[in-house]
Design brief:
With 152 residues, the protein is of the alpha+beta class. Helices cover 25% and strands 26% of the residues. It starts with a strand and ends with a strand.
């Protein structure tokens, strides 16, 4: 996945031929030409859960007309970090009651949710850009201090 900076506060990602375009809220001086990265994070939880709900119905030949999810992020007291993501599942009118708990278990298998429960380590390093030498010196960091562990 390659990340680019097309202007303003926009940051885009190119992944397997698909552009994922982001921007910041207007309150941060942006043109709001796309969702924020945090919006995409919440959407990834919802669309992943939705995929598992949809697949559950499809595998059992259940009518998915009326199947819907609503995703609501809830921030903590500081108003900055999301502390809970609430997913409300609306089942189709003819959805068999015997599958109610099973579809919830299926949604719990969402790989995005599982990654949140067991977060990956995130390593950030500085590499030479086009035309740069391998040496890096900025804000008091030397070339051997260019890696940061931001795992949480």
């Amino acid at each position: 996945m390659d990340i680019s900076f097309p202007g303003g506060q926009r940051v885009d990602a190119l992944h397997e031929g698909f552009w994922i375009r982001t921007d910041q809220p207007v309150a941060y001086g942006s043109d709001r030409l796309g969702p924020s990265p945090l919006d995409l994070f919440v959407a990834s939880v919802g669309t992943c859960a939705g995929f598992y709900a949809l697949r559950f119905c499809q595998q059992r030949n259940l009518d998915e007309h009326g199947l819907a999810l609503s995703v609501t992020p809830e921030k903590g007291a500081d108003g900055k970090l999301i502390r809970r993501i609430r997913i409300e599942l609306t089942l189709p009118p003819a959805f068999p009651g015997k599958y109610r708990e099973a579809i919830l278990r299926a949604i719990d298998q969402c790989s995005v949710k599982r990654h949140l429960l067991e977060p990956p380590q995130i390593d950030v390093t500085v590499v030479p850009g086009h035309g740069e030498s391998g040496a890096f010196a900025c804000a008091g960091f030397s070339s051997h201090e260019t890696s940061a562990d931001h795992s949480r």
